[in-house]
Amino acid sequence: MIELFYLGIMLISGILVAKALSIFKLPDITGYIVAGLIIGPSVLRIVPQSAADSMGIVTQITLGFIAFILGNEINLVTLKKIGSQAFVIAFLQAFSAGFLVFLSAFFLFQQSLS
Length: 114
Known about the structure:
The protein is mostly helical. The protein is 77% helix and 0% strand. The protein has helices at residues 2-21, 28-39, 49-53, 56-73, 76-108. Helix 1 packs across helix 2 (28-39). The radius of gyration is 20 Å and the shape is extended.
């Protein structure tokens, strides 16, 4: 029964923060993430870790809804316009992150190549 209480807190806070961030023209998904961060076990601890752990199926369903919302906000025209730029940026970020981790491990921590 207490899980329903925490679920209500999560839903209400997500909606409120999403509406508050819509003033800045941010998508609702940003508000849900910020609300989860704020009320979750890492910041204010309104929802304890045990309650978050016990809601496995709710988490999976919520992730499905979030993916649907993100897919709804992306249109094909915009994706075609920024597609090549997004690919280049993603590739450069992944390559530079891997390269920096390699340099750090090899030179700073004297790890072997293997």
